[in-house]
Amino acid sequence: MFLYVWFFILGTIVGSFVCLCIDRLPLGISIAKGRSFCFECFHPLDWKDLIPIVSFVLLKGRCRYCQKRISIFYPFFEIFSGCLLVFLVYYETQILKALLLFLLIMDFIVISIIDHKWMIIPDICLIWEIVMIICLCSFYQIPLIERLIGLFIISGPIFLLNCFLPDSFGGGDIKLLCINGFLLGYRKIVVAFILAVLFGGGYASYLMVQKGVNRKEHMAFGIYLCIGILIALFWGEQILSLYGL
Ligand SMILES: [Zn+2]
C-alpha cells in the first residue's frame, strides 16, 4: 500500500512536468532551463506554488501574484497521471516495464494535445519516444525482421502518398508511424493504423455532418494514431486472432 502511495506521488510529479511540456514546447521555451512562471503575469513561481495538486488547492485555483484563475486541467491531469502510474504498476508485474509504459503514454499525451492545438509534433517528443521504444523492445518478443518491416510498411506508402498529395499527412505522423512500427512489428502497426483511420475518419465524418466543417479543412491525426498504437500495443494480438491472423 505504502509503495502505491509513492507511485501515485511520482505519477503526479511527472504529470506536472508533462503540463509544463505542453505549455512550453510549442512556444520554443526550454523545458530544462528557466524557472516556472505564471503564463498570465509571467511572475516566476516559487517551489510552494509548484507542488502537484496541493498548490492548486491551497491557492484556491488562483495565481498567488495576479489572482487569475489557474486552469482546472492541471490538478485533474496530475491526479490522472498519479492514478495511471498506480494502475500500471498494479497491472504489470514488472515495475520497470510499468514505468516505461507510463512514460510512453505520457509522451503520447503531450504529442496528442500539442498536435491538436498547434498542428505540430515536436521532434523532442519523437526522440523521447525512440528512447522509450528501445528500452521497451526487450519486453515484447517480436522477431527483428518483423520490426524492420514495421518501420516502413505504413510510413513508406504514406510518405509516397504525401509526395503526390502534399499535406495529406503531417511529417510528424509519418515519423510516429515509422518509429512505432519498430515497437509493434508490421502486423500490429497495421492494426494501429486501421484503428486510427477508423477513429479519425469517424470523428471527421461527425464534424462534417453535425458541424458543417469543410472537408478541405485540416485535422490533427496525431491523437488517433496515439490511441491506435496504444490499443495495438495492449490488445493487438487479441484483435489479430479475432480475424484468424
Ligand atoms: Zn499570475
List the helices and strands and how they pair.
Layout: H1 2-24, H2 54-58, H3 73-91, H4 95-118, H5 123-136, H6 144-153, H7 155-164, H8 171-210, H9 222-242
Helix pairs in contact: 1-3, 1-4, 3-4, 4-5, 4-9, 5-8, 6-8, 7-8, 8-9
This protein binds zinc ion (ZN).
Zinc ion binds at residues 38, 40-41, 43, 63, 65-66, 68.
Number of beta strands: 0
Domain unit count: 2
End-to-end separation in angstroms reads 41 Å
Bound molecules: zinc ion
Proportion of residues in β-strands: under 5%
pLDDT < 50 runs, ≥5 residues: none
Brief account:
With 245 residues, the protein is mainly α. Helices cover 68% and strands 0% of the residues.
Task: Provide an overview of this structure.
The protein has helices spanning 2-24, 54-58, 73-91, 95-118, 123-136, 144-153, 155-164, 171-210, 222-242. The chain has 245 residues and is mostly helical. The chain has two domains: 1-91, no CATH class; 121-245, no CATH class. The longest helix has 40 residues, at 171-210. Bound molecules: zinc ion (ZN). Residues 38, 40-41, 43, 63, 65-66, 68 line the site of zinc ion (ZN).
Short key terms for the protein model shown above:
2 domains, mainly alpha, 0% strand, 68% helix, 245 residues
